[in-house]
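Incident log, support desk, overnight shift.

02:14 A customer reports that sequence design results differ from what the structure should imply. Their input is reproduced verbatim below. On-call engineer (initials T.W.) acknowledged and began investigating.
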């Protein structure tokens, strides 16, 4: 991959790249729709991601090219940087803008991006681009930012420059991921634990439903509001700041405070899912993939029945997975209404799983999913740090 990308850089810019960086995508193994409720999530970095090759120029400009997209740009160091429509290079321009507003001294760069994350799949291609750009600038210009600073910076770019109100989980997983580790992350305090997640003879199957997630944003905002309504009801008796400040036992004692049946279901999912993350960490620490798989299925059932953010496409994948003895567990991952499901599949059975789930899904839905195999990988770094020989 490195030699191919170097040749692409030469083809584009007529010179060799001086530095190469890689930032992964991510999946959330368990703990869905928890980040805005002050609870625990468990993402991991995957082995797909974004490659960035750079070389300095003496012209005081940043040049952006991508192997994945036709759009390219040249931006002056002195320019007042603003978002331009819906083009991919808004993400690195936003990062550069942040560095300059913070008074960091930058010089011109020729930059070539290549990503093997499926676009629009919910595997955090945008966070991957942001973090690899921030890491590269920090490295090249000795900006002095910590890894956590880069996470917060990248989230700020997404929120303020791009205009997407995401939580911090995606950027955090992309930056702090560790090989064979899941990150049990407290979205409120940003404390985290790297949980041993040796998949043994299993691989992480990522099943992209190939359904556009058109409903996700409006329904996401609706769910946030429903959770806030539940929280206010519980605060009549409980001194809590977030729904995830209580466990299932406490919730069951106080749930009568929530009068709306739909709001009650939303809160039940959040509290029980937060408890599932704690149990999932214990299962992984004990190398008990069977129990972890059971919790994955329970998470999906809750997202389908209580939180109602799944859909026919995601349910069909999980429905098939439950019939396959080579699958330890499966669930939707991400905001829902399309995007991806994940499954733990025996590596010797992955090819058969791919064929069978494709046939089952195509018969039910009318078009095929895309299936990928990944291990749990490292976070952002220079290429020789993250590509194992």
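02:41 Re-run completed on a clean worker. Output:
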């Amino acid at each position: 991959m490195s030699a191919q990308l170097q040749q692409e850089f030469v083809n584009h810019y007529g010179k060799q790249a001086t530095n190469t960086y890689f930032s992964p995508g991510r999946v959330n193994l368990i703990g869905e729709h928890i980040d805005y409720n002050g609870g625990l999530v468990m993402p991991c970095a995957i082995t797909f991601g974004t490659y960035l090759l750079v070389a300095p120029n003496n012209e005081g400009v940043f040049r952006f090219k991508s192997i994945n997209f036709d759009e390219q740009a040249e931006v002056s160091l002195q320019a007042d940087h603003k978002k331009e429509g819906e083009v991919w290079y808004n993400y690195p321009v936003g990062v550069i803008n942040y560095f300059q507003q913070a008074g960091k001294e930058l010089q011109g760069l020729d930059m070539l991006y290549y990503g093997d994350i499926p676009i629009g799949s919910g595997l955090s291609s945008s966070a991957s681009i942001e973090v690899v750009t921030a890491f590269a600038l920090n490295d090249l210009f000795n900006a002095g930012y910590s890894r956590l600073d880069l996470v917060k910076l990248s989230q700020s770019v997404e929120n303020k420059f791009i205009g997407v109100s995401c939580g911090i989980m995606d950027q955090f997983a992309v930056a702090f991921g560790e090989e064979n580790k899941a990150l049990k992350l407290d979205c409120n305090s940003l404390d985290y634990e790297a949980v041993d997640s040796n998949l043994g003879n299993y691989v992480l199957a990522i099943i992209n439903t190939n359904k556009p997630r058109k409903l996700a944003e409006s329904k996401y905002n609706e769910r946030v509001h429903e959770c806030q309504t539940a929280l206010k009801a519980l605060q009549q008796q409980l001194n809590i700041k977030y729904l995830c400040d209580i466990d299932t036992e406490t919730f069951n004692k106080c749930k009568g405070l929530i009068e709306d049946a739909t709001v009650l279901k939303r809160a039940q999912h959040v509290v029980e899912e937060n408890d599932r993350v704690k149990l999932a960490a214990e299962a992984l620490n004990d190398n008990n993939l069977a129990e972890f798989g059971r919790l994955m299925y329970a998470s999906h059932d809750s997202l389908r029945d209580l939180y109602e953010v799944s859909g026919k496409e995601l349910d069909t994948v999980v429905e098939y997975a439950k019939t396959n003895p080579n699958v330890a567990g499966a669930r939707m991952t991400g905001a829902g209404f399309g995007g991806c499901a994940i499954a733990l599949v025996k590596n010797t059975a992955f090819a058969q799983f791919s064929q069978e789930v494709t046939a089952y899904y195509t018969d039910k839905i009318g078009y095929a999913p895309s299936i990928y195999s990944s291990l749990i990988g490292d976070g952002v770094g220079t290429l020789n740090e993250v590509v194992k020989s």
